[in-house]
Prior knowledge:
By secondary structure, this protein is α/β, with parallel strands linked by helices. Helices cover 33% and strands 20% of the residues. The protein is built from 11 helices and 16 strands. The protein has helices spanning 3-17, 22-29, 33-45, 68-71, 76-86, 102-111, 124-130, 155-160, 187-198, 239-250, 299-306, and strands at 19-21, 50-52, 55-57, 95-98, 117-121, 136-140, 144-146, 151-153, 166-171, 175-177, 181-184, 200-206, 218-221, 228-232, 254-258, 266-267. The protein is elongated. It starts with a helix and ends in an 18-residue tail after the last helix.
Amino acid sequence: MFAAERRQLILEMVRANGAVSLRELARVVQTSEVTVRRDVRALEAEGLLDRRHGGAVLPGGFTRESGFPQKSHLATAEKTAIADLAANFVEEGEAIVVGAGTTTQELARRLARVPGLTVVTNSLLVAQALAHANRVEVVMTGGTLRGSNYALVGSGAEQSLQGLRVSRAFLSGSGLTAERGLSTSNMLSASVDRALVQAAAEVVVLADHTKLGTDTMFQTVPTDVITRLVTDEPPAHDDRAATELQALADQGVQIAVAGTGASGNAQNAGGEGAPTRQQRRDVALPGPRRGQVPGPGSPLRTAAVLGEQAPGGERARVADLRRR
């Protein structure tokens, strides 16, 4: 394929999806990431797109939201690895909330095997993934159906979450930065995600490396509210993504990095073996932030109690980038 044809195809993919990783672009145009990176630089020089942390986005700084058909084909290997690792943070008999998104849908497919689990969700896709799980109870919010991502939004969804209390919330979004936290491109989705966060003692964000450093219009979860980020390993050349991860860790966010290689294991910065359910989790929950002092019934103290059991499975290793 000639350079002009490659670049036109790359441009069409970015325009259709809003944001595309270099890995995905290289796969579609059937060339190396080095070549794709060179093409992306050329297109950026023409003002046709912007480079972002291992990928390309629409020009202008803020990415627009893609529809479900486009999202479902993006970073599929990364989403699978993230979902595999995130499932290890769910214990038998827990009550959790799971937000809308293609990554959370992948997580839901793995939660079908967790006995005694109660999952509260506003996502039809999450509910569908768990519909035939005999040992999992699914509770859906009310609200108005948003067709682009098959999620229930609006005042009905938010009101149905009032008074709810669960151990953790698993959320995705359109972008994640250390400065602003998790964000999304739709106001109604952002409002429901904030209600989901209010119901949980601990917040786990699922975001692949292409979302790191990407900022979108509506903030959903401030950085100081995020307990843990589950992400994939950024490409070796992506120093900016590594810098963003360190900035998040410096603010108290625990970083769990899932590998996308043949082993499917997460990377462990300390080189230790994978934790088992009999071992104590070696990822400490963050302490009070910005002057907070946890009282006897505070979410921070509750999260510390809920964090006693270690995530299980020999298939997972946790990279703990602790706050310095």
